[in-house]
Amino acid sequence: MASENPTSVEYIKHHLQNWKVCKTDEGWVWNQCQDAGFWSINVDSVIFSFLLGAMFCFAFWRVAKNAKVENPGRWQSFVEMTFEFVDKSVKDTFHGKNPLIAPLALTIFVWIVLMNFMDLVPVDLLPWAADKINVLAFGAEPGHTYLKIVPTTDVNVTFGLSLGVFFLLLFYSIKVKGVGGFVGELTLHPFSSSNKLVQIILIPVNLLMELVGLLAKPISLGLRLFGNLYAGELLFILIAVLTSAGIGGFIGGGIAYMIWAIFHLLVIPLQAFIFMMLTIVYLSMAHEDH
Amino acid sequence: MSIDLTLLFTMIFFIGFVWFCMKFVWPPIMATIKERQDKIAEGLAASERSAKDLELAQAKAADMLRDAKSQSAEIVDSAKKRHTEIVDSAKDDARSEADKIKNGAMAEIDQEVNRAREQLRSKVATLAVAGAEKVIERNIDESANNDLFDKLVKEL
């Protein structure tokens, strides 16, 4: 909230602003990062993504440590359900033997679900609380605290994940097919010819097409998740703006918020599932040696 | 909305979480699930086996029951036979005993009859002698007449 009574535009802009720290000529500063470029950090994304991931690790590790063969508890049953779901998805798609794929898929799925679920926390709750804390404890000006609590609405987070997957894809492509095999896959498809001269002419065309295809994988993976969640968050914010428009707007906004939240309940696991499935598919493609 | 250092942080977290999951979370839980699956499979196999055992035992029991029935029928048959035998022999015994008793009784009756006849005979002799004495009034000659009386007695 840039002022005590922000306009709708100010309100929306404020909500789409990350809590940032960046390196400028005067050293590391908070939230003055318009020109900082690469050397800035979205502190809220980092904190929330780490906390949620750590929560996942801790909760599942507890279950793993106390896992009972007979008479599993409710929480263990739930965790096992998730495991079997992921395991089945992996086994259906990935036919090689790689102990990394299944845990990778599980981590992606649960972590993204948790991060997406932050979307269902009322949009103003944590930013408002953070603003109050900042004002009371650190003497900041009201409205100058920024907090985005859904890490997957930060393009850095989704690209962090998709690039992680992309590097694994490159790694396994080269490991399974060898450098030559991988380069061959990039240059000798989809057009090939038995004529050596024609083949040489075709190589740049193939390379261009295959490189586009290859690079499209992490970009589409990251942007899909980001776009869905960003749009969802934006709609929540817009509905929140609506609630300030008198008593009718408040009631209508409340109902709209609820409906959108219910719809979002579908989007949240769906996007996580898509991300997980595509990761498995890409890695299984990397493992296929023609 | 630009790519910045956050990306690196996220990637590091990502790698860390995946590593942790691969190391400490996935294997034990999968092992637990596998163990339970094995146990369930074992249990199912055991139940199948016991069902088969039950079937066998039932067949065996039916066999035994049939045997027992035929045996008991045999026993009943032989018992019946034995019963008729016993009854027959008892009848025979009773009949022979009755014959014996009857014969004894007949013999006794004969004896009695003979004895009575003897007595009667002797009495008749005496009576006859006395009658004759009275008829003749005087004893003529006892000895001469005794022959006559004896003859008379024998004729009775």
Topology:
The complex is a heterodimer of chains A (290) and B (156).
Chain A: H1 8-15, E1 20-24, E2 27-30, E3 40-42, H2 43-65, H3 74-93, H4 101-117, H5 125-138, H6 155-187, H7 196-242, H8 246-287
Antiparallel strand pairs in A: 1-2, 1-3
Chain B: H1 5-136, H2 142-155
Q: Please tally the β strands of chain A and state the result.
A: 3
Order of helices and strands of chain A: HEEEHHHHHHH
Helix content of chain B: over 70%
Biggest beta sheet summary of chain A: 3 strands, antiparallel
Q: Strand tally of chain B, please?
A: 0
Care to give the gist of this entry?
Chain A is mainly alpha-helical. Helices cover 70% and strands 4% of the residues of chain A. Chain A has helices spanning 8-15, 43-65, 74-93, 101-117, 125-138, 155-187, 196-242, 246-287, and strands spanning 20-24, 27-30, 40-42.
In words, what does this structure look like?
The complex is a heterodimer of chains A (290) and B (156). By secondary structure, chain A is mainly α. Chain A has one domain. In chain A, 70% of the residues lie in helices and 4% in strands. In chain A, a hairpin with a 2-residue loop joins strand 1 (20-24) and strand 2 (27-30). In chain A, helix 1 packs across helix 7. The N and C termini of chain A lie far apart (57 Å). The model of chain A has no long low-confidence stretch (mean pLDDT 86). Chain B has 156 residues and is mostly helical. Chain B has one domain. Chain B is 94% helix and 0% strand. Chain B has helices at residues 5-136, 142-155. The longest helix of chain B is centred in the middle third of the chain and has 132 residues, at 5-136. Chain B is rod-shaped, with a radius of gyration of 61 Å.
